Amino acid sequence: MRFGIVALFFFLFFIFFSKNKYISLKAFRDASISGLLFHGFYLGGVFFALSKGISATVIALIVSLQPILTSFLAKIYLKEMLTIFQWIGIILGFSGACIILISDLINGLTLIAFFSGIVGLISSSLGIIWQKKIAANLSLSGNNFLQALSASVFHLLLALCFEEFFINFSNEFILAISWQIFAVSLGAFLILMWLISNNKANETSTLFFLVPPISALLAFLILGERFTYIDFLGLSLSCLGVFMVSKINIKI
């Protein structure tokens, strides 16, 4: 449902605002693969892991490994090189994320939930590498339309095979699905695709280090949860690490 609605919105953007409306078979295939990696196996793996009992903290820690894996893959497949300062930045960013998450590690973790999280981690890194390779083939709206379309077909097939079709249209459901559609899929992923097309893959991926500390800060501001000095230290290290990777290019 979510990706079907997202695909419709991006299709309208593509039709009305894209200058080049031609989609080759190669572009269709490439964008569909990207959609399966990002929206199918990455998001699917994360949400499935959560449904199997993994805590949000542990899955966030697993996904926080993504910039490190992406940096190695970018060096192999995209020939992107990192300076020693950027590697230090990656270490600092990961350390900051770990500081935020470590207190909730590991409670009731099952093998299938952990494996699903690893699938999400690998898929997100491969998705960034793949998207970087194909970024110039299609407009942002066209690319995101095909990604959402492939993801909607993928999840529909999974639902037909494993799920019972029932939706409780409660206020909470409408609010949650609206956030997933407009803020995450139409907003955050559109920005992510733009960042990938305009920056190095490893520089873009380091932004994921900011997810745990920013989540902790928002939980403090919105939900009234505690934000300790340790949380502030983790946020500071993550911000410093991202800055070092994206802004400092001094070679030794």
Helix fraction, binned, reads over 70%
Query: What percent of residues are in strands?
Result: under 5%
Instruction: State the major sheet.
Output: none
Specify the structural class.
Answer: mainly alpha
Q: What radius of gyration results from the CA coordinates?
A: 19 Å
Give the mean pLDDT.
83
Order of helices and strands: HHHHHHHHHHH
The domain count comes to 1
Determine the number of helices (DSSP H or I, runs of at least 4 residues). Answer: 11
| Shape summary | globular
Low-confidence stretches: none
What's the count of strands?
A: 0
Distance between the termini: 51 Å
Describe the structure.
- By secondary structure, the chain is mainly alpha-helical.
- It has one domain (2-247).
- Helices cover 77% and strands 0% of the residues.
- The chain has helices at 2-17, 25-51, 56-63, 66-77, 84-101, 111-134, 140-162, 171-198, 201-205, 211-223, 229-247.
- The protein is globular, with a radius of gyration of 19 Å.
